[in-house]
Amino acid sequence: MITFDLILGQVKECLALHKSALGDISEAVINRDLNGRVRLIVPEEAQDNPFIQTLATTLAERLAPHAYPLERMVLFEEDMGVVFSGVSSFPLDGFPNVRVVDRLATEGNWTTIGPLSPGAPRIVFFSIKGGVGRSTALAASAWSLAEAGKKVLVLDLDLESPGLSSALLPQGRRRGFGIVDWLVEDLVDNGDAVLDDMVASSTLSREGDIYVVAAHGRDPWEYIAKLGRVWMPKVKPDGTREPWSRRLVRLLEALEQRLQPDVVLLDSRAGIDEVASSCVLELGATQVLLFAIDSDQTWAGYRILFEHWRNAGVAQAIRERLQLVGAMVPDDEGRKAYLEGMVEQACDVFTESFYDEIPSGESTAGYFSFDRTDEAAPHYPVPIRWNRGFAALRSLHSRLEVVDEKEVRFVFGPLLDGLEVTFTQQGVRDNG
């Protein structure tokens, strides 16, 4: 019996049977539709190639019920570029002229990685599970960076569970509109009408500045109705569609142009959804901080995501931007054992998907590979101490009003040191 999980393995076996003949075709696409059915798409000039019918027959027999009937198994396209328009796709490992196209019911795309932002560092705070102190760490990081004289731009992109702005802004300083408002208004070319009333300045900044763009405005009114529309692609007059993630990039670029920040901190939605995929992959992040606690659910979630990147052939493109953060690390006698357990689990998960296998007898030079206890490795957790005073977003704004830098550094010090390294590396790239 063939189930969805077995499709690509079976496709590879079918292609391997005909690998020499496959080389005579300029390109081929394995198309998986919304129902998980597979068909073959090839250029129109391959229509008279008898190999195509042979391959189609093999695929139809091996993939049933996840295959179109033989008479509908092949599509011949005059313009192959149309096949890839607005969809998720990735190369099929071992077959350089074959790509897989996935037609998904959502706009989430965990295989398209945008180029690094050429401007200020963009740092994404992401977690596979909620409730790990991710937003608290971002708020404290913004406060600390502003104390160091930086101009910090913060975006609350946890659109389905907003709340970060309450940690950085008192109620009276919130602006009339938020990110969801702009995404909805942009669909009817009205984004500029709300842009001027989206950016709030936090009272917590003393030496530098903290600019906050909230998920919603001061009065959220029809927030749920608007939230159901933010994922919509924008249809332009010529009929082309601009994905919602690209619209989000435009908003970020417009905000950066206006404010000229030194750093941008992005609070992502937890889990594997549309917002998270855009934040982690498509916004040009300099660094993606992966918040984790040492639990089976956490490692299972990250393993699913990392394996998807590996199977899609994009692991090498994203791995250097990743850094694990050990959240809520106990501040007692169990701290050492807890961190050692995290290192063990994290190293295994990262090694399976990201680290190069070093041939016997060769040095590690030129390979992306790290020892288990290498503190510079992306799998080695940057620890954040669990602290009762920073445990609740409800009290964080008032907490940061009276806190001193020593207290923040005691809890978040290694994370803040890592952000400084990111600034240094960005400066090297800019001057290179």
Describe the structure.
The chain has helices at 7-17, 19-22, 50-63, 134-147, 164-168, 179-186, 192-195, 223-227, 244-259, 274-282, 296-311, 315-318, 335-353, 396-402, 405-431; strands at residues 28-32, 38-43, 74-77, 88-91, 98-102, 122-127, 151-157, 199-201, 209-213, 234-235, 241-242, 263-268, 287-292, 322-329, 382-385. It has 432 residues and is an alpha/beta fold. The chain contains 15 helices and 15 strands. It folds into 2 domains: 4-102, no CATH class; 122-431, P-loop containing nucleotide triphosphate hydrolases (Rossmann fold, 3-Layer(aba) Sandwich), CATH 3.40.50.300. Strand 4 (88-91) and strand 5 form a beta hairpin.
Summarize the structure in short:
This protein has helices at 7-17, 19-22, 50-63, 134-147, 164-168, 179-186, 192-195, 223-227, 244-259, 274-282, 296-311, 315-318, 335-353, 396-402, 405-431, and strands spanning 28-32, 38-43, 74-77, 88-91, 98-102, 122-127, 151-157, 199-201, 209-213, 234-235, 241-242, 263-268, 287-292, 322-329, 382-385. It is α/β, with parallel strands linked by helices and 432 residues long. The model has no long low-confidence stretch (mean pLDDT 88).
